[in-house]
Amino acid sequence: MGLFGQLFSKKKKNESLLDLSVLGCDMHSHFIPAIDDGSKSLEETMTMLQSLADLGIERFVTTPHVMGDFYQNSPETILPGLEKIQEAIKKEGKPWKIRAAAEYYMDHEFLTKLDAGPLLTIHQNKVLVEFSYVNRPNNMKDMLFALKINGYSPILAHPERYPYLYTSMREYEDLLDFEVDFQLNLGSISGMYSQGAQKIALELMKREWVTYVGTDMHNMKNYPFYEALLNIPEFVSLVESGKLKNADLFKD
Ligand SMILES: [Fe+2]
């Protein structure tokens, strides 16, 4: 069966569902209960995990926000929450595997966190970072450079969601030249955020500048946008390109 066939497998309970098992893992989500704007309870987390398992995803690296202001998370808040999820998965006899890292917001406190280290990584030295949606960080390149000289490799979360980068695709090329990997949000492809985000997501996919995809799932309202990927040929082409590296992030 070719990749196209795998994507549209009919072996799942609901025959209309897309099969995303080919991705290998979801590497961006907000499943740790009540520590950021994602899941509010363990029950909600289990519902979200089941919804993604129904689409064929059974391995997860969950990534709570770590910010200087709103969500002051650290391994001390993240790891106990992860343990509770792992216990619930075991209790329910599910085959799912989950680890935790973080989505680091590049704000005024980021360099302090970097100095205090170590950061929670997605896999090996790979760190998921995000920028402000509103204001272009003045010291964007300095912060990325600081990450690199400390031995980390940055993955930029949802590059399609920063309107100040939309003026030219050269903005994205500059980041790629700086060895930043791009992680596209699956919901952006099917229009969950804005037309601008969708347009840039499709352009980044067309140029094959996307290394990873993630759900960035916060709640069940996000779910219909993942099912909608079934109708997006550009998404199928991206998966068929063989350039997505999600599977490399979750090797046993
Ligand atoms: Fe996120």
- What would the CATH topology be? TIM Barrel
User: H/E order of the elements?
Assistant: HHEEHEEHEHEHEHHEHH
Helical run tally: 10
Which percent bin holds the helix content? 25-40%
Spatial strand sequence of the major β-sheet: 2-4-5-6-7-8
Query: Architecture, CATH level 2?
Result: Alpha-Beta Barrel
| Cofactors, ions and other ligands in the entry | fe (ii) ion
Strand elements, count: 8
End-to-end separation in angstroms reads: 25 Å
Arithmetic mean pLDDT: 91
Shape category: globular
Main sheet record: 6 strands, parallel
The rounded Rg comes to 17 Å
CATH class: Alpha Beta
- Determine the structural class based on helices, strands and strand pairing: alpha/beta
Low-confidence stretches: 10-16
- What's the number of domains? 1
CATH superfamily (homologous) name: Metal-dependent hydrolases
